[in-house]
Amino acid sequence: MTSPSFSSPSLVGPAIQVQKSPWRSSCHRGAVWMVAFATTLMRWSGWRVIYILIFFGAVFYWLLGQRTRRGLVSYWARVRPDASYLDRWLWTYQHLVRFGRVLMDRQVFYHPDFTYSGSGLVPLRKALNSGQGCILLSAHIGNWELSAARLNAISRGRAAIVRVIDDNPELRRLIESHMGDAQPEHIDPRDFLAASLRIRARLDQGWLVCMLGDRQLSGQAALRVPFLGEPAPFSTGPFLVAGLTGAPVFMGFFMKRGRRHYHVEVEEPLTITLPRKGAEREKALAAAVHHWSQRLEDVVRRHPQQWHNFHNFWQ
C-alpha cells in the first residue's frame, strides 16, 4: 500500500514545537500508592474484590485530580458535543473507573479468566518472519502496556517500545514486576541521537519497534491536524523513521472488550515514501500524519472511555 493521499492541505497546520508535556503531572496523580495498595490486597482477596474497590479509588482520583478532571471534561466536550455538562462530569468519573481497571489488568493478565483475540495479525507475522523490521504505531488507548507484552511474544522476543522510561518510575516498576520476561526492550527517546541509532539498528535486525503517536516530548516537532473536530499536535517522528528506513507501518490497538477479554486490532501496513526535500516532502508527511489522526479518531469514537490522555490534548 502506498502512502495515504492527502486531499485537504488547508486542514493541516505548520510544523510546531511542543514546549511542554502536561500529561506527566496529571495522568498518574495518586496512581502509584493506589496500585501498590491494590496489588498487595489482591494477594489476599483476589482480583474481583479489587475491581469493586476501584469505584472508590476513582472517587478520590476524581476529587483531587483537578487538572485531570478538566482535561477529561474538555475531551468529552469534543466526543459528545451535544451532551450536558452534568453528563460530561459523570463520564469523567466512569472514565477513571475504566482506567483503574486497565491498570489492574496489567497486574493479572496471566490469569486464566482473561482471554485474548486478534485481527490483522497475519501480515505482521509474515513480515517479521521474513526478517523485515516493522513499526507498530499505537496510542495511549486501550491497554497499550499489555499490548506490548503480547506483541513481544508475537515477535518472539524481538520487540522494542519507544517511550520515556522514567516518566513515572515507581508506577512503572510496580507494573513491570508482574510482567516478568513478557515486557519488550525500552528505548528512551530523550537522547535523540542514541534513540535514533538504536531504532535504526533494531529495524535493520528485523525487530518490531512500537511507537506511541499521540504524545510529544518538549521541543519535539509535530504537525497540527484535525482530531475530534479541532486541530491537535501529532508527532512526525514515526513517519520520518518509516520514510528513512523503508519499514512498513502497522497501526495497532489493544482494546478491552468486556470485563476479561482483550482484542488486538492491527491494520494493513502503510509504506511511507518521502521525497528528499521541498513542498512535496512536507505534503507527504502531512498526509501520513493526517491519516494517522483520522484512524485514531475512529478508534476513539468507538471506544471513548479507553482514551488515556488525561490533559487538554489540543493545547
Summarize, please.
By secondary structure, the chain is of the alpha/beta class. The chain has helices at residues 23-27, 31-45, 47-64, 66-79, 85-105, 121-129, 144-154, 169-176, 192-204, 237-245, 279-302; strands at 15-18, 115-119, 134-138, 159-162, 185-187, 208-212, 220-227, 230-235, 249-256, 261-266.
Annotation keywords:
315 residues, alpha/beta, Glycerol-3-phosphate (1)-acyltransferase, 7-stranded mixed β-sheet, 10 strands, 47% helix
Characterize the structure shown.
The protein is of the alpha/beta class and 315 residues long. The protein is built from eleven helices and ten strands. The protein has a single domain, classed as Glycerol-3-phosphate (1)-acyltransferase (3-Layer(aba) Sandwich). Helix 2 packs antiparallel against helix 3. It is globular.
Secondary structure: helix percent: 40-55%
User: How many DSSP H or I helices?
Assistant: 11
Supply the CATH architecture.
Answer: 3-Layer(aba) Sandwich
Main sheet overview:
7 strands, mixed
